[in-house]
Design goal:
The structure is a single chain. It contains 13 helices and 13 strands. Helix 3 crosses helix 4 (99-108) and helix 7 (203-215) packs parallel to helix 9. The protein is of the alpha/beta class. It is 44% helix and 18% strand. The longest helix is centred in the N-terminal third of the chain and has 21 residues, at 3-23.
Length: 327
């Protein structure tokens, strides 16, 4: 082959290769979305997370891909699901649905950036070194919802001041369970209210708990902050309705489906902020330098339709405390 023909042949092949390479888009960054919850009930939270991503110019399927892993209330599955996402080589790991997801993610990787949403204090549970400068590869949003059990019990006592024993649902598998139990017992002693704490960690125990409340003529119910309860909120609200049991919950999502009342932060705002942080990290921000966001606005929501069904009447004082009343 003549030298000129060889150069023309090689040059043509190189141009063709460059054209093919240009035509093929580079691999999109992957976000691992780890949750202790379930996909059906978490749709609004996922939508809020995606909305937060969009503030940084990221849209799932366009310039980023989101890989979802759901534990559906079974916390024991989270370590395996987190390890799977780490092996997948995700760019950022969004560990949502409380402390169980966040701690599983942190145990799975010390290099991949992690953005969490939890209910308690991330310093106390060992996720970060401090709120202002988290250090390491972890930051996120603290919803502070598991630190408001005493307030919820007090509101329940305001609504039903003359009732007998209050039931309290606590998930012993949740990292905040012991602190929640102490807080509720101290609050109960302060207001002189007898309580009955029932531990519930799975669906079978949930059914048994409400049977126990029925047998013991429980007057009202506090459902403590826990992702397992949030995942099963439809069933919990239905069981409370069957017993005619007034109850207070952590998120307004319970009240929207017929729960009596809730006191807590906006779940959607927490997930939105987690999406914002995830987008910032994809753009190059260091999680060690992103302060942990803490929710500061708590809302008290009342469902008057449910109150009417239960034969309850809210005092003017309680109604004046409500941020929103569903009529």
């Amino acid at each position: 082959m003549k030298r000129r023909e060889f150069i023309r042949l090689v040059g043509g092949a190189a141009v063709a290769w460059l054209l093919r390479a240009h035509a093929q888009p580079s691999a999109l960054p992957v976000i691992g979305f780890l949750s202790s919850r379930s996909p059906d009930e978490a749709k609004q939270s996922v939508a809020a997370f995606r909305s937060g991503l969009r503030t940084n110019g990221y849209a799932d399927g366009q310039n980023v891909v989101i890989e979802y892993r759901w534990a559906e209330g079974e916390y024991s599955r989270l370590p395996e699901l987190a390890a799977d996402l780490v092996q997948r080589g995700v760019a950022v790991l969004a560990a949502t649905g409380g402390e169980p997801s966040a701690l599983a993610a942190k145990a799975a990787t010390s290099t991949i950036p992690i953005v969490f949403t939890i209910g308690g204090d991330p310093v106390k549970v060992g996720l970060v070194g401090s709120l202002n400068r988290p250090g390491g590869n972890v930051t996120g949003v603290s919803l502070l919802t598991s630190l408001a059990e005493a307030k919820r019990l007090g509101l329940l006592n305001e609504v039903i001041p003359d009732a007998g024993v209050f039931g309290v649902l606590i998930n012993p598998n949740y990292q905040q369970a012991e602190a929640q139990s102490r807080e509720v017992q101290e609050a109960a002693r302060a207001i002189g209210r007898p309580i009955q704490i029932v531990n519930v960690g799975n669906n079978q125990e949930l059914e048994v708990a409400f049977a126990t409340f029925a047998q013991r003529n429980t007057a009202a119910l506090l459902v403590t902050a826990d992702p397992f309860f949030t995942t099963n909120r439809n069933r919990i609200v239905a069981l409370a309705a069957q017993l005619g049991l007034p109850a207070i919950y952590e998120f307004r999502e319970y009240v929207d489906i017929g729960g009596l009342m809730s006191y807590g932060i906006s779940l959607k705002e927490g997930y939105y902020q987690a999406g914002v942080y995830t987008g910032r990290i994809l753009k190059g921000a260091n999680p060690a330098d992103l302060p942990v966001e803490q929710s500061t606005k708590f809302e008290f929501v009342i469902n008057l339709r449910t109150a009417k069904t239960l034969g309850l009447r809210f005092s003017d004082n309680v109604l004046s405390l409500a941020d929103e009343v569903i009529e």
